[in-house]
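Quick log. Single chain, no ligands specified.
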Amino acid sequence: MFVDTVIEDKALHKPVFLIGLSVTVLAIFFAFNLTNTIFGEFLSPVIGNPEESGFFGRLAVSFVLTILFVGNLLLISFARLKIQILIVWIELFLLFLAFAYSFDLEIAYIFQNDFICSTESARAKLCTPSKIGLMISKGLFTTIYISAVSIAIATVIAIVGAVAKLSNNGFAYAISSFYTSLFRGLPLLLQIYLIYMGLPQLGFMIDAIPSGIAALSLCYGAYMTEIFRAGIQSIPKGQWEASRALGFKFGLILRKIILPQSIPIIVPPTGNQFIAMLKDSSLVSVLGIWELMFLAKKLGAKDFNHLEMLLTAAMIYWVLTIILEMIQARIESKYKQKT
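-> predicted structure:
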């Protein structure tokens, strides 16, 4: 985190800024007219019936929310940096939960089984796990499997593509540039359909999971090619020339000298691509693959409880991305210490 070395009063501690912020926030809340929400119901002893409160009710609700919002920011500003971050995270998470609660969800539905093993014959067979258990045991495993394999293949493609784009060989450069232009220019969903339905027309029968992996690998391999190329080109040209002057081969220079120095530059954008790929793996659900998104739609459609299952999938995806962010931060920290 970048730390400013100039010590000055915080903006929230300046009266002029505080007044300006309060007026701005008040205008925003007033424009959205929150009298018919839970806030209006909470203030009903003061404003009366929210639907009939008119201008006074609208202004009163906006004023109270402004006091709470600005006062909250002011109190948080006195805490230490890490405490500030923790408090804001907790508050935003609680707001997210409140947003989800407003949908009138049946939380118990997420933990229900599709059927109950009530007889001895049924107990002798495998019972269907709860909906969230099925999403974790099958959907999560499939999502991680597809993403991990696709990430590995995309990395290999990116390295080869980057080297080809830096090559003096016209054929290699032409193929690499055409590949990156094509696969960065087409929507990922369209690539999935083209591979799954197009290859059988050429006589290559391919299942749904390999099709999804191929589409993800080729698409993200094209984006990562440019990341690797930029990372390699960030190393001063003099190191290439000095290495060649010493008689080193191209592959040895790339493997022992250039790539180790370019990795700290490559890791941050590549980590972002990994996270994006994890979420975009949900697109393979159109092929009927039992990954998280497919199961969320399938299980929710049975009893029209779509939001319960979609929010469950959202939380699982969120946890996965947080784990990837933590791994990425550790890798970045490791290479930062080396440099």
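The chain has two domains: 11-102, 131-338.
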